[in-house]
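Support request from a user on the community tier.

User writes: "When I paste my structure tokens into the form, the page sometimes reloads and wipes my input. The last time it worked, I copied everything first. Here is what I submitted, just in case something in the input itself triggers the reload:"
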């Protein structure tokens, strides 16, 4: 690759970095502004907006509600997605390709269309808007991502290990628990973190299927309707920092788990 091409790629990369991170930095800075209005210049600085988050019952309630929905929907999607991955990867049967396509369909449908469909279907089933309806919708939306991640990891499993376990007298259940599950743990952890972040950040399905208790994204949207304020920037900054820290920890932990079988 010539020097000019490398310079061009480098410029494009750093332009993309600036495009992504400058708005985030400006958003964080606005959370320190000692004023109720968003805008430059920042004449005085304060921590009141960030400290106020921990004393605001609405925000804490919405945050806890969002975390509970994210955790429960992730547990469901991990179980269902892993089962689908094992079924598709480990068995050959008629309609396997169709099953794989249907399993991925929830990830391909646009969010607004998916939310409307879930709302209509929930009404047909008699499911009231609220926590259960949101968990159900989030779990179905997250299953394809779990299936893809687990299938990618499952394709690298050495067949010789499972064959050796069976030759030594292990039944299919013991082989699955002692060989397959430990091998899939990095993928399951990565899929879990990804689903947690997807569910925590989901606005459209939470908005259409939610009841009187709002999730954090829905609460931020409701606050935006009355105008921008540094409090919204503080809430968004807290969510960004938390999700980034969780993602970095998961990435490092997954790397260590991937290297463990090699030692």
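"...and here is what came back when it finally went through:"
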């Amino acid at each position: 690759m010539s020097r000019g091409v490398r310079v061009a790629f480098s410029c494009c990369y750093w332009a993309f970095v600036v495009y992504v991170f400058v708005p985030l930095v400006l958003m964080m800075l606005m959370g320190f502004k000692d004023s109720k209005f968003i805008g430059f210049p920042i004449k005085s600085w304060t921590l009141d907006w960030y400290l106020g988050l921990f004393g605001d019952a609405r925000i804490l309630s919405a945050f806890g509600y969002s975390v509970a929905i994210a955790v429960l929907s992730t547990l469901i999607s991990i179980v269902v997605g892993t089962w689908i991955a094992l079924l598709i990867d480990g068995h050959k049967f008629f309609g396997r390709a169709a099953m794989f396509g249907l399993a991925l369909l929830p990830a391909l449908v646009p969010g607004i269309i998916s939310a409307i469909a879930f709302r209509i279907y929930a009404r047909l089933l008699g499911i009231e808007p609220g926590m259960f309806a949101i968990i159900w919708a989030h779990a179905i939306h997250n299953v394809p991502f779990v299936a893809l991640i687990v299938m990618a990891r499952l394709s690298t499993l050495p067949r010789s290990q499972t064959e050796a376990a069976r030759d030594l007298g292990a039944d299919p259940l013991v082989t699955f628990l002692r060989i397959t599950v430990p091998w899939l743990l990095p993928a399951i952890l990565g899929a879990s973190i990804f689903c947690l972040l997807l569910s925590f950040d989901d606005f459209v399905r939470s908005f259409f299927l939610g009841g009187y208790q709002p999730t954090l994204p829905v609460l931020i949207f409701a606050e935006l309707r009355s105008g921008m304020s540094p409090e919204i920037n503080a809430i968004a900054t807290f969510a960004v920092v938390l999700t980034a820290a969780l993602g970095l920890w998961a990435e490092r932990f997954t790397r260590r788990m991937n290297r463990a079988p090699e030692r």
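Agent notes: The reload is a front-end session timeout and is unrelated to the input. The chain has a mean pLDDT of 82. The chain has one domain: 57-258. Escalated to web team.
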